[in-house]
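Suppose you are handed only these lines of text.
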Amino acid sequence: MPHDHSDPEHPHSLLPSDPALRVKALETLLVSKGLVDPAALDAIIDTYENRIGPRNGAHVVAKAWSDPEFRAALLKDATAAVSALGYYGRQGEHMVAVENTPDVHNMVVCTLCSCYPWPLLGIPPGWYKSDAYRARAVREPRRVLAEFGVTLDPDIAVRVWDSTAEVRYLVIPRRPEDTEGMDEAALAALVTRDSMIGCGLASAP
Ligand code: FE
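From them, the structure of the protein bound to fe (iii) ion can be written out as follows.
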């Protein structure tokens, strides 16, 4: 759901304790009143959960690794660059790409709810929406990363980006070593969903 983070009427402490239950109740009500078609809802969920998933984002990252012009365009205006590849739509209107370097590791959270770049990554994983991740990603990002199996050199700065309804982030993970000569499709297979949230690294070939 789009979420206006500037709305003081809806701090996240007021989110229902069981959102899934409330969603089910709303869906039941809307269907019984004939306002939504359950088959259409299923089709939307299937699109983001299975057909898109994180593969679009992996394509974008692999292209950025292989094509310096595309990488520059992506860093300059990610919304335009990914739209040119056909990746646009709800929850992806204002994209920003942040690139990991030898000195900086980027990590994405939505502290208020679960804002996430759907057209590139699909539906957010359960942990991304959890209270624990949303709170701890900003408070103790290195410990959270360690729990994901990512231990960073202390010299590497960690930058945490808070997604909003206005801006969604895509992390460009570092290109793994020994991947020279690999084509885009082979590179895309190394790009994990978590690496594009900044909670993982791209896989070794
Ligand atoms: Fe949000």
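What can we learn from it? The chain has a mean pLDDT of 89. The two ends are 36 Å apart (CA to CA).
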